[in-house]
Please model this.
Amino acid sequence: MPTTEGTAGGNDDGALWQAGWYRFAKALPSPNFGPRPAGANTDLVVIHSISLPPGEYGGDAVQRLFTNRLDWDAHPYFQSIRGLEVSSHFYVRRNGELWQFVSCDDRAWHAGVSSWRGRGNCNDDSVGIELEGLEGQLFDEPQYETLASLCAAIAQRYPIAHIAGHEHIAPGRKQDPGAGFDWRLLREQLGWSPQMFPAQVVQR
Model:
């Protein structure tokens, strides 16, 4: 696990964080990351959804993908993503179990071509959270509980001012987490200002 603290995160909260690693997550470091640009202001949380193969839950394929250990021949679908090198900071299982792959002080590879709050390249200054699920489908209560506590903890350490879905920062290219994600519930759990959320979800 990296021990050098990046410049984006400020001082560690000894109870919750160590060099950008969250105490209550299972750490599985990914090689797919890099430094944030100098002066990056980590003020955005991006919500994604993922399942491998799509719609199948409970295996370890996502962990393997994010650590470049996925057996591309294990399922026909994997051929369509063969060689993909990606990562997210966090991954929340259906039962609420939380994994972390990249220090939040570092830049994970989750957003791709993206733009939000007037800035492009959202990987540079965001924290990416993957929910085990299928875009457009519903998510489970334990996932919302873990997600809300995680977002609150992230906001204690980083100057979070925005939260959005992958579909919002990459419209037309991505559709996750999709219509099945309950933004209203997350807003209620967090108690954050509506201005921090995409206008599309506040109006729902």
